[in-house]
Write a structure and sequence with these properties.
By secondary structure, the protein is α+β, with helices and mostly antiparallel strands. It is built from 15 helices and seven strands. Strand 4, helix 4 and strand 5 form a beta-alpha-beta unit. Helix 4 runs parallel beside helix 6 and helix 8 runs parallel beside helix 11. Strands 5-4-6-7 form a four-stranded mixed β-sheet, with helices on both faces. A three-stranded antiparallel β-sheet has the order 1-2-3. The longest helix is centred in the C-terminal third of the chain and has 21 residues.
Length: 371
């Protein structure tokens, strides 16, 4: 099929003529006029952008196997793109039945949001949809695309993949298709996809809608913020992201540097937890939540898959191990937000640059030891 364009004199539009027969350009009169479809310049621009987006290779945004390392072989994580808040008087007001959370049980960043959502009693206020752990060339799939046990459909739009949500919010989006995604059903937009900010939104934004016993829970209290920030400032680069910098390193030098920093940071945490129930004494804070999601994955995944194998948590860090097990076995928000099958399947199946056979190890047994 080919086409011809004609500008309509005196009007801000074009007429586009489509024809598949090579003799079609020789039509005249009414037949010629009726073969045109009229489009405004605005419509033409939208069509052009849509065609350009359709032709773009989106697997560079969705396929982790195509992720590029830095020139020195190190891994650098891109910043999240959507950084809005939910607050009174703002663009996104705290409301019932307005927001939806999209997560993966496999993802430590998404697990942060599930834990705080549960701790704050937001289950009925913020519904959740869970993707399959099989993150392939199209990114995170919903159950409609991959019926993995525990995965769900997208109840809002019937999306096949998380990337569909990103393009619905922004057709020109060029970042990675990550979870968690905090979605606004009213404006059909991504409110925020940065887990560290979502957990703070959940911490206070919906206090007017929850019981008093949940409202008083504050995991980022004013008096402890400097100490929490200080902990986060070394735990995130050294441990949370440190295991990824280790696992995705593509040179020996980058790997050796990253793995050393991981275990130096773990050594520091081990000393902090000596004689303490939590990182800041007897008070559970967001610093514990942010650290815990990495520690719970350490022995089942990061020791083998990411080569963080200088020590295991269970045999090398008794204080961290006790702290992690206590949170898992005594606080349902932590246990219910953890799915070891999704965790192990995702890492070993999805990261083909590291594990091309996609064989998922059986061990360790058990995934977490009892108290």
């Amino acid at each position: 099929m080919t086409m011809s364009l004609r500008h309509i004199k005196g009007q801000n539009c074009l007429r586009i003529r489509f024809f598949s027969n090579p003799l079609s350009p020789h039509l005249s009169g009414a037949s010629f006029r009726n073969s045109f479809i009229r489009f405004s310049f605005t419509q033409i621009s939208k069509i052009s952008r849509h065609l350009a987006m359709s032709a773009k290779d989106h697997t560079l945004q969705s396929d982790i196997a195509k992720m590029k390392a830095e020139p020195d072989g190190s891994f650098k994580r891109r910043d999240s793109s959507f950084r809005n808040l939910i607050e009174k008087g703002g663009k996104y007001e705290p409301e019932k039945d307005r927001y939806h959370l999209f997560v993966s049980y496999a993802c430590p960043w998404a697990t942060r949001t599930l834990i705080v959502r549960k701790l704050k009693g937001l289950d009925d206020l913020i519904p959740v949809s869970v993707v399959s752990p099989h993150m392939g060339s199209d990114g995170w799939p919903f159950a409609s695309a991959d019926k993995y046990p525990g995965a769900t459909d997208d109840p809002l739009y019937g999306s096949q993949h998380v990337k569909d949500l990103y393009f619905k919010a922004d057709p020109g989006y060029d970042g990675r298709f990550t979870v968690p995604v905090l979605w606004d059903k009213k404006t059909h937009a991504v409110v925020n996809n940065e887990s560290s900010e979502i957990i703070r939104i959940f911490n206070t934004a919906f206090n007017d809608f929850i019981p008093d016993d949940k409202k008083v829970l504050d995991f980022y209290p004013n008096d402890l913020r400097p100490k929490i920030d200080e902990l986060n400032d070394f735990i995130y680069p050294g441990i949370n992201n440190g295991v990824y910098r280790t696992g995705f390193a593509t040179t020996q030098e980058a790997y050796s540097k990253a793995v050393k920093e991981v275990f130096e940071s773990l050594d520091k945490v081990e000393k902090i937890l000596e004689g303490n129930e939590y990182l800041l004494g007897d008070k559970l804070t967001e610093a514990d939540i942010r650290l815990w999601v990495t520690i719970i994955r350490f022995d089942p995944v990061y020791v083998g898959h990411f080569k963080c194998n200088i020590k295991t948590i269970r045999d090398g860090y008794p204080n961290i191990d006790k702290w992690a097990r206590k949170l898992y076995w005594t606080n349902s928000a932590f246990k219910d937000s953890t799915n070891f099958d999704h965790i192990k399947t995702h890492y070993y199946w999805s990261h083909t640059s590291i594990n091309p056979t996609r064989i998922v190890p059986v061990g360790p047994e058990p995934n977490i030891r009892p108290l």
